[in-house]
Amino acid sequence: MTTSYRLITRVRNLAVYLVLAFFAAIMLFPFVFMLTTSFKEPKDTFNYPPRLLPRRPVTTEIAGGDEPLPLYALEVDGQTRNFALVESNIPIGIFADPQNPAVTREILLSETAPAGGFTNQEKAVVNGKEVGLYDVVIEGQEQKLALISQTAVGRFVDPDDPDVTVLRNVRLSQPVEALTARPQNYTDVVALQGIDRSLTNTILVTLLVVSGTLVTSVLGGYAFARLRFPGRDRLFMVYLGTMMIPFVVLVTPMYQLMVYIGWVNNIVALIIPWIFSAYGTFLMRQFFITIPKEIEEAAVIDGASRLQILWRIFVPASTPALATLATFTFLYAWNSFFWPLVIINTGNETSHVLTLSLNVLRGRASDSPNLILAGAAIAILPPMLVFIFGQRFFVESATSSAVKG
Question: How many CA atoms lie within 13 A of 386 on its CB side?
Answer without folding.
Answer: 22
